[in-house]
Amino acid sequence: MHLLRSLFTAGSLAALLVSAAPAYDGTVTVTKTKEVTRYHTKTVSTIFTKRQACSVTASSLTSAPIGPSGYHSSSTPSIATISTSSPSNTTITSSKLTTSITSLSSSATSYPSATHSTTAAYPYCTSDAAFASVDSVHPRLFNYNGTGAKYFAGTNAWWASHILSDSDLDTVFSEIKNTQLQVVRVWGFGSVNTDPGPGSVFFQLLNSTGSYINYAANGIPRLDAVVSYAEHTGLKIVLNFVNNWSDLGGIASYNAAFGGNATSWYTDSQSQSVYKDYIKLLVNRYQCSPAIFAWELANEPRCHGCSTDVIFNWATEISQYIKSLDAKHMVTLGDEGWFAPADNIGDGSYGYGGAEGVDFAKNLGISTIDYGVFHLYPDSWGYNETWGSTWILEHDQVGAAANKPVVLEEYGYGSPNNHTAVERPWQLTVLDDTSLAMDQFWQFGTTDLSGGLSDYDTNTIWYNSTAEYDILAREHAAEMLEKAV
Ligand SMILES: *[C@@H]1O[C@H](CO)[C@@H](O)[C@H](O)[C@H]1NC(C)=O
Ligand SMILES: *[C@@H]1O[C@H](CO)[C@@H](O)[C@H](O)[C@H]1NC(C)=O
Ligand SMILES: *[C@@H]1O[C@H](CO)[C@@H](O)[C@H](O)[C@H]1NC(C)=O
Ligand SMILES: *[C@@H]1O[C@H](CO)[C@@H](O)[C@H](O)[C@H]1NC(C)=O
Ligand SMILES: *[C@@H]1O[C@H](CO)[C@@H](O)[C@H](O)[C@H]1NC(C)=O
Ligand SMILES: *[C@@H]1O[C@H](CO)[C@@H](O)[C@H](O)[C@H]1NC(C)=O
Ligand SMILES: *[C@@H]1O[C@H](CO)[C@@H](O)[C@H](O)[C@H]1NC(C)=O
Ligand SMILES: *[C@@H]1O[C@H](CO)[C@@H](O)[C@H](O)[C@H]1NC(C)=O
């Protein structure tokens, strides 16, 4: 924290804090006295028109001080706190805010230099759809949108937040929607240590002087667009906050900036402080949106060789922190579902031995973790394909004992194997032999983007690939929706 604070002089610490009273059901509009190019005006005008009871903090959304090179800091000091429960629009002006932004804007000559545009074709936080929740009558299932418990299927498209085109997002969400998949897991992270230039999407730049949030067109507006398209199509997304792996930055990018290694990261005070600031930014920004299915702590967190207490304690603290910011959305961990010897499951081999410092059963006991997730990649982990159904049944049983929903959040089996032959039996195990609330195949691919193919790997189930897609995506999505509760 001290590093972030030292970045700014007192004069630039101007921000506007607006909170709508929790029960407020009207609209609030924040009006700036002067238009500033790099100021993120879209969120200002949309998030406060949400006709849903919730409290929003303008400073954390759009009015945070602009740091060096046109980045905003993730710290959120305020110069004014304005509360309203008025049923009509409230106009708030702040000369300090305008002055501050004007001067910083004119001094920010380096990248990102492009004028920030309002990218998303649709605003976000305007849908009246209900939030997803754990169903109160059937606590192992989800209530997707207020219409009662249901089983459903979803998918992963990590890259949806890392493509630059809105019309491509339109294509992606339309295709997923017409497949009847309900939930899309998308990377909420993307961090770098040096600016890669405007062609690459990144949300956070980390270096020895702190964390800089990228509000340029190749930054946070891409996440805004994902949320807005999900809302528009009536889909929901799982957004995670960091990657264990170094793809798209990950824990390694924190360590490169602040020191530490893959295991010390979970307890490193500076990394954790920056990570929590990033969580706060996204949670405050999208907490009004019914398109958020759940917040997820990380993608595949591991602490190799550690006591399972390290991840358990970290997951406890971070999930509590998220709930303190946003009590309405669900929270999940994002792990691969490793068991530890204490669980007394399996044969003691890799998936059961606790080598990665993760104990699925223990972590599911955390009260601020709403549902458990696990992944399934037998060919990468040294298991045969039929073991996949065993792994599925074991996680279902632990979910039953904890009386919480459990989701098969990623599953795949690399080409040249026949995806249908290997994965269809797993889907039928989920469907017929468990109470798993949802499964999400890894991963959705489409050939219909403006640049051609979406990012893909050997597990990809292609939208154009009719036979495979018809069974693993369309048929499975339909049969899960039809499954009797
Ligand atoms: C860190 O990145 C910011 C934003 O690009 C830059 O202004 C700052 O000088 C960098 N700090 C170091 C030590 O390179
Ligand atoms: C509040 O302002 C927004 C944006 O200008 C407008 O669409 C909306 O109708 C206004 N609401 C009321 C109650 O005046
Ligand atoms: C969402 O709500 C609509 C009605 O508004 C309903 O038809 C649909 O089945 C619901 N979806 C799920 C997954 O519950
Ligand atoms: C990671 O850092 C911790 C704390 O400094 C240290 O105890 C541990 O040995 C390091 N691990 C590796 C693999 O270097
Ligand atoms: C991810 O976790 C594993 C196990 O702890 C570790 O070996 C690996 O280095 C991690 N990845 C990164 C980028 O730190
Ligand atoms: C697959 O592996 C399991 C143990 O993980 C073993 O019991 C089973 O016999 C194996 N099946 C085949 C077809 O090799
Ligand atoms: C893949 O497996 C499915 C199900 O077993 C089968 O119907 C299909 O013909 C196979 N495809 C190929 C290309 O072998
Ligand atoms: C779908 O597109 C992928 C990527 O271009 C290609 O490998 C595959 O052959 C296509 N499938 C069909 C059925 O056209």
TrEMBL record:
Hydrolase recorded as keyword: yes
Pfam families: GH5_mannosidase
Catalytic activity field: Random hydrolysis of (1->4)-beta-D-mannosidic linkages in mannans, galactomannans and glucomannans
GO molecular function, one term: mannan endo-1,4-beta-mannosidase activity
GO biological process: mannan catabolic process
Secretion signal span: 1-23
Keywords from the UniProt entry: Glycosidase, Hydrolase, Signal
Residue ranges of every copy of the Glycoside hydrolase family domain listed in the record: 258-417
Top-level EC class: hydrolase
InterPro entries reported for this sequence: GH (IPR017853), Glyco_hydro_5 (IPR001547), MAN-like (IPR045053)
Assigned protein family: Belongs to the glycosyl hydrolase 5 (cellulase A) family.
Stated name of the protein: mannan endo-1,4-beta-mannosidase
Organism: Friedmanniomyces endolithicus
